[in-house]
Automatic annotation (TrEMBL):
This is Ribose-5-phosphate isomerase A. PANTHER family: RIBOSE-5-PHOSPHATE ISOMERASE. It holds the Pfam family Rib_5-P_isom_A. Its EC number is 5.3.1.6. Catalyzes the reversible conversion of ribose-5-phosphate to ribulose 5-phosphate. SUPFAM superfamilies: D-ribose-5-phosphate isomerase (RpiA), lid domain, NagB/RpiA/CoA transferase-like. Belongs to the ribose 5-phosphate isomerase family. Homodimer. Homotetramer. Keywords: Isomerase.
């Protein structure tokens, strides 16, 4: 599994050129990409490349690996964003947010000239929600009201609890995460919009229609899905 993640991360380097501003995703697959990208920059193989982190995790990793970091408000545009995903359907719609960084990820990836997704073949599903719940970032005071409202969508939502802290997971933005299991997601784009219409929802982990390229690590090599 780790070798498949490394393979897609290495392949992603082919998309990076001098003078690019690169959105840096969150998670274990992107961590390999950040490591390899930093190496190329440190060795002088790539020049004037800047990273825009999507989380505390990617910011710390970028600094550790020698990638110059800038904020979203310091750049005119993002050339490419590179990130992992938890599920990918045949239309390249995604579920993201296992790492609770979905809001900043979506803000940056929506704006990127190219959004490149890195997954292993175990993440491919016929229909979103088949294996993973949809993470929803919510304003803390509203978590219970939103969890109840989500039932209207034929789903059950659970407050995500932390493992190395007492109480709930608190996102980089100071909010809570609800993990919502939907019985069936027929129209990801519609559900993405509907969920964001609920007051108190900051963002949700359905990324419909924004991935441009998906690199899939398989035992037989890296496969490319493209729009
Ligand atoms: O959305 C994410 C974090 O919020 C991650 O990109 C997603 O969970 C995939 O992570 P990994 O590469 O570790 O499987």
């Amino acid at each position: 599994m780790e070798e498949l993640k490394r393979a897609v991360a290495r392949e992603a380097l082919k998309f990076i050129e001098d003078d690019m501003v690169v959105g840096l995703g969150t998670g274990s697959t992107t961590a390999y990409f950040i490591e390899y990208l930093g190496k190329l920059i440190m060795e002088g193989e790539l020049e004037d490349v800047y990273g825009v982190p999507t989380s505390h995790q990617s910011r710390l990793l970028a600094i550790e690996n020698g990638i110059p970091v800038v904020g979203l408000d310091e750049v005119d545009a993002i050339d490419i964003a590179v990130d992992g995903a938890d599920e990918v359907d045949p239309q390249m719609n995604l579920i993201k947010g296992r790492g609770a960084a979905l809001t900043m990820e979506k803000i940056i990836e929506y704006r990127a000239g190219t959004f490149l997704v890195l997954v292993d073949e175990g993440k491919l599903v016929e229909r979103l929600g088949q294996r993973m719940p949809v993470p929803i970032e919510v304003i803390p005071a509203a978590w219970r009201a939103i969890a109840e409202e989500i039932e209207v969508f034929n789903a059950e939502a659970e407050l995500r609890m932390a493992s190395k802290k007492d109480g709930p997971v608190v996102t980089d933005n100071g909010n809570f995460i609800l993990d919502a299991r939907f019985h069936r997601i027929d129209d990801p784009l519609d559900l993405e919009i509907e969920l964001n219409n609920i007051p108190g929802v900051v963002e949700n982990g359905i990324f419909a229609d924004i991935a441009d390229v998906v690199l899939v690590g398989t035992k037989d090599g890296v496969r490319k899905m493209e729009r």
